[in-house]
Specification:
Length: 137
């Protein structure tokens, strides 16, 4: 598999589908790539629209997640904030841990940092640990 952005995105969606299925969700897939979400998770009478992101942590052990969509076109690269009314859940797939984290975009501003490894100074206050977001709500 090449490391092209599309391949990474496809892998992230596949990992999210398996992880959500293992958590007891039925997975529904939109018939277009132009929807604001990548899949729909259904459980106990409730549907959740899920946008998937494939992110590796930086050298500092932190996953940086921006709630935005980017694409390249003839006029350059475009970035648009995600409409939090069109996405119920963001799934962040991390290749270093081979785990998914689930974030409700309405709980955060335009971005969030998730710590995958303990910081050098062992700071724990006001830190979002990725392990705390392993289960979909």
């Amino acid at each position: 598999m090449s490391h092209h952005t599309k391949s990474k995105g496809d892998l992230g969606v596949l990992k999210a589908q398996v992880d959500l299925f293992e958590q007891g969700f039925t997975i529904c897939v939109p018939q277009t790539e132009h929807s604001p979400f990548d899949l729909v998770a259904y459980r106990k009478g409730e549907f959740q629209r899920v946008q998937v992101k494939y992110r590796a942590p930086g050298n500092n052990g932190v996953l940086q997640v921006k709630f935005a969509t980017s694409w390249a076109g003839r006029q350059g690269t475009h970035t648009v904030p995600v409409d939090e009314n069109e996405v119920d859940l963001n799934c962040i797939c991390c290749p270093d841990t081979d785990e998914c984290c689930y974030l409700e975009p309405k709980r955060f501003c335009s971005n969030v940092s998730l710590r995958v490894r303990t910081s050098k100074n062992s700071q724990a206050r006001r830190v979002n640990f990725a392990a705390d977001f392993r289960r979909a709500p």
